[in-house]
Amino acid sequence: MSKKMCSENSSTSKKSGNNPNLTNQSGVQAARQFDFPRYRENAAGGYIEFYAYDPEKGKMRRKRIKLNRIKGITNRRTYARRVIKRLTEQLNNGWNPWIAKDTGDLIVFEEAIKRYEAHIEKMLASGYFRKETYDGYKSYVKIMREYISKKRPTYYVYQFDRKFCVDFLDYVFIERNNGAQTRNNYLNFLRVFSGFLVDKGYLKSKPTDGISPISKRLYKKERECIPLEVVGRIADYCREKEPDFLFACYLLYYCFIRPVEMTRLKVCHFNLKACTLTIPGELSKNKTTQTITLPKKVIQYGIEIGIFSAPIDDFIFSYRLKPGREEIDPKHFRDHWDNVRRALNLKKEWKFYSLKDTGITEMCDRKVAPRHVKDQARHSSLAITDIYLQKSANKASGNRDIIGYDGAL
User: Fold this and answer.
1) How far apart are CA 119 and CA 319, in angstroms?
2) Which of 112, 124, 126, 376 has its CA 20 to 30 Å from the CA of residue 90?
3) By the 8 A CB rule, do 330 and 285 touch?
4) In contact, 64 and 40? CB cutoff 8 Å
5) Could you tell me the CATH superfamily of domain 109-218?
6) How many angstroms separate the CA atoms of 209 and 229, rounded?
7) Mapping DSSP to helix (H, G, I), strand (E, B) and coil, where does residue 99 land?
8) Which of 157-170 are b and which e, b meaning 16 or more Cβ less than 10 Å from the residue's Cβ?
C-alpha cells in the first residue's frame, strides 16, 4: 500500500466512532457510529474493512469488502481509493451497512413505546379506556420490554417487524408457558400497537398482517364449570374461613357480576326492597346501565355480614373485602380464590370466574326461563342484549323466578 494512502487512512481514523468495542450507545446517534474504511492486503488478496454499529448485535461490527476480482495490485489500490471515498461519504451522510434504510429516518423504539404509553394514559384519563383495558395494555408493554431485554435487543422501530412479532408470540406461548387464549390476546395487542405505529408514521404497514390467532377449535378452554357437589364444599369452607369472600362468590354465582365490576359497586347500587342491583354504565364492561335481580339468599347473607349497614357511598368490597372508602384491585378476589383452591385441593381449571359459568349452567338446568337467565347474565351478543335491555329497562322490581332462587352455593 502506498505511503500516501496509509497517511490518509491514519488521519481519518481518529474521527469519533472508531471504537470497535462500543456497546452502550443508544438512539439514532449510535447507528451513525463508524470507523473509517481502510484498504488492507494479505496473502489472500486485497480488501477494504471498516466498523459500523450493528443495532441487532448492539455493538460495532466489522464489515469487509473483498477486491480480488480487480486484477493487478496497482488497479486494485486505485479502485480501493474510489470505493473508500464513496463509502466515507455515505457513512458521513448517515448510511449504515447493517440497516436496510438511512439512519436519518430511524425512530428509537423505546421512544415510540413511551409515546404509546402516553397515548393510552390519555385514553384512560379521557374515559375512552376502562381501567382494566389500560392495565392490560400496560402489562403487555411490560412483557414486551422483558422480551427485548432478555431475548431480542431492539433499538429502532424498523426492527419491530414480522419476525419480531412471531418470535415474541412464541416467547409468550412457549417460554412463558401461557395458554393459547393468552397468546391470542398478545397478538391482538401487537395489532393495536402496530396500528398506532402506522398512524404515527413510524411504519408504513402493520408487521402483524398475516399472523393468525390459534383457532378456538384447536384448544381447550382453560376455565371449566365446577361440579355442584364441589360448589357446596366451597360454600361451606368460605362460610367458616372466608365469610366476606363468600359474598363475592354469591354475586358471581347468582348475579354474574364480573370481578372488576364488584370492585366498583357501592352500597347505594343495591335496592333491597325491589330485590335489584343496578350497575351504572360507567362501571360496566359495555358502558350500559343495567339492572339485575338479587336473589333473597344473596340479600340475606349481605345483611348477615353487615354489607348493607355500611354508608351508602362505601364500596361493598374494600380492605380485607369489607365495605370501605378505597377501591381495590380485582386481584384481591383471585388471591382469596387461590387460598380456597389450595385448602380444598381444587383443580387449576376451576377458576374464580368458573363460578359464573357454573351458576348460569345450573340456573338453566333448574328451568329458569332462558330470557331471564340471559337478562341476568348480560353476556349475549350486542343485538340480543339490546333486546333484553329494552324489555328490562323499566323493571320496577326483580324477576320472581330469580328472587326465590336458591342454588348449590
Assistant:
1) 31
2) 112
3) no
4) no
5) Tyrosine recombinase, N-terminal domain (1.10.150.130)
6) 47
7) coil
8) bbbbeeebbbebbe
Q: How far is CA 190 from the centre of its chain?
A: 8
Residues 347 and 224 sit within 8 Å (Cβ to Cβ)? yes
- State the fold for domain 228-403: hpI Integrase; Chain A (1.10.443)
- Note the pLDDT tens digit of each residue in 291-329: 999 999 999 999 999 999 999 999 999 999 999 999 998
Q: How far apart are CA 281 and CA 273, in angstroms?
A: 22
Q: Taking the domains of the chain in order of start, what are their residue ranges?
A: 3-104, 109-218, 228-403
Output the nine-digit C-alpha cell for 291. 339492572
Burial of 68 (0-12, 13-18, 19+ CB in 10 A): exposed
Compute the radius of gyration of the chain from its Cα atoms: 32
Distances (CA, A) of 134 to 116, 122, 260: 11, 10, 13
- Summarize the confidence of residues 227-235 as an average pLDDT: 95
Q: Show the DSSP H helices in 32-161 as ranges.
A: 73-92, 109-125, 131-150
| CA-wise closest residue to 105 among 158, 30, 61, 54 | 158
Q: Which residue has the cell 426492527?
A: 159
The predicted model scores a pTM of 0.56
